[in-house]
Amino acid sequence: MTTRWSGAFRAFARLLCVVSMVLATVGLAEAEPAVATETAPRAGVLAVQIAARGLDGRTLIAAPDGVADAAGTLDDPLTLQAAADRVEPGDTVLVRAGTYRNADRPGEMAALIIRRGGTAERWVRFANYPDEKPLIEFNSLRGIKVEGAAYVVIEGFEIDGRNDEVDPAEAYAHAEAFTGDGYDRNEFFGVGIRLGTSGGEDPAFPHHVIIRNNHVHHCSGGGIATARADYVLIEDNTVHHTSFYTPWGGSAISVWSSANFDDRQNVYRTVVRGNTCYQNDNLTRFWMMRKFSDGNGIIMDALQNTQDNITQDGYDRQYNGRILVAHNVCFFNGGRGINLYESDRIDVLHNTLYHNALRDNIENEIEIGRAHHVRTHNNIIVPAPGKRAIGGYQSERTAISHNLVHGGEPHPDFPLGPGTVDADPGFRQAPPPTQTTDPPVDPRSFDFTLRSSSPARDAGAPDFAVPASPDEHRRPDLGAHFD
Questions:
Q1: Rounded to an integer, what distance in angstroms lies between the CA atom of residue 87 and that of residue 124?
Q2: What's the whole-model pTM score?
Q3: Residue 378 falls within a domain, yes or no?
Q4: What is the CATH number of the domain that holds 354?
């Protein structure tokens, strides 16, 4: 399956991001939402300025047979955790192929815990050794856990949460008895990559973190999740078969209860782009609601920070960052393709959503629930039979236009707006229809890129093209793919 941008398009996008970083720093004064830079010359698109810099320090090597007091060289590698505990601003940790397990670290909640980060001028990076693919295999609470660290890149890992070893009946019974505490059964809660606070009386919140090019799968609690974070870029990851057994209602990619590093409004501060999320679902009920609630491809969750269980840490400010959800492909998920719940200032642009909301109690491919200032443009949405493309409840100031919607039921409160294309999108190789998240599919057998004759070609709104075309009059293709 082709679920990435073409090479030329990707290079252009990255170049524009670098240009925007040169043009602005974190200390810029607040500006109007429409930013007049090369990256964002139109009415709706802002700059993305989350990019690593200053990776000019040491290179530390970690390997499965490494030792904690090693030199960190190819001939004398460190353990993965020892490298993380030794890292300094500007350093890169290159991780050799092989398997890294939480079982090798008795009593720890993750196979890797990152507590040490970088600085604004000198980030730190954890990445696969070139042309190798390290595997993190875990049945603990987390695969990789970031504890309040900042200016961190995590890329190139495969993370397997081993939920195919869980007994579904046992997991369901555990969830039905769960009352909000007690995590003695780690195998029901595991999240592949989790950003969270450092804990303690004065916890540090994570910020300026890039999670890129990882393959996260079979994690009981969720794929990639953030809490109390800001300036986060989650891009080009593949996440599948997660969230089955948690009583907390997990999803493939979840951004939850974010905190404000600053108050800038002239850039996107949370960016989820270029990811592929498929066959994620909840097979146990969310304990607070006693219903199957999530299993979404992507969720922006409770960023208004009004719920009692969120504000117990003393932070109750609403997250005010602008959010971009763009160029993602979500298909065959039990929950929505994209779920926006009690979260504001979100742009949903150029995504391809196909046959999500497969559970009987989920209705919408894109759900906008108590979410405000949401703009939904230039997407391709193919709902499963009897489902809706866009729906929701109790939301204000939503804008919807220039999407291709093929099939589905209309929602009276969320009209599709001008520029809607009602036609088969013309994928090069569409997946076969399904009404279930099981059995597993082989995503290599189909292709969501567009045929040359596709009605999604040149059908988008230029003001919401991501990235913006140098030709301000050119209408972009809809959906997540460009040739």
A1: 7
A2: 0.89
A3: yes
A4: 2.160.20
